[in-house]
Amino acid sequence: MSKLATETRGSAAIQALEAAWSKLREPDPDLRKLDMVLAAERQGNLGHFARSRWRGPGRGRGHEVAVSPVLFGAPEEVLATLLHEAVHILLWPGEHAGVSDDGRYHRTSFRDQCLEFGLACDWWNSRHGWAKTYWPTNRAIPSEFREVLECLKRELPLGLKGPQRFIGHRSRRALPKSGHTRLQCSCPRPRSVYVAQSVVDAGGVVCVLCGSVFKKPSQ
Is the pTM here over 0.85, yes or no? Predict the structure, then answer.
């Protein structure tokens, strides 16, 4: 008898997400245990991180991570969302989860950690900051996350209505009015920096790891 024949899809989904999170934690002990829930079905609400949401005797306060079932038709997007929320946890409490006090504006510290994971991270707007994360189309998902991805492909129920519901969240928006420009180095996994146009014009921004000059990705 199949797993979904004996359990509700919601229970199966939570177990799949918890299994994927456990695999993410194996190489990174800084990712703490948490309470996993399903996000409400609202347009654009693909997931969230809630600090110290849950309480229990002898456990202290636990963080909450939610993922929308809308994503379940595309496990790669579920993985990207889990990593998005993982960055918040890694930046808590020293960087206040990488967001503003109200939890909305994603700071550059959040963006930089996402880039370290191999995610692209774009400017969304003045309210949410650097909050748009997704897998770059020109690079494969990093090998260290492949086992997590296979777990999601194997365990997740189909979800609500498939990936067509959220493709629009990838649309890019303009960078801040300050004119910051993204530059990349020549490392095997290129690192990015965002600098003012005056810095671009002056040049000489060098990566200390590979020794190359940071340039615009198109160059």
Answer: no
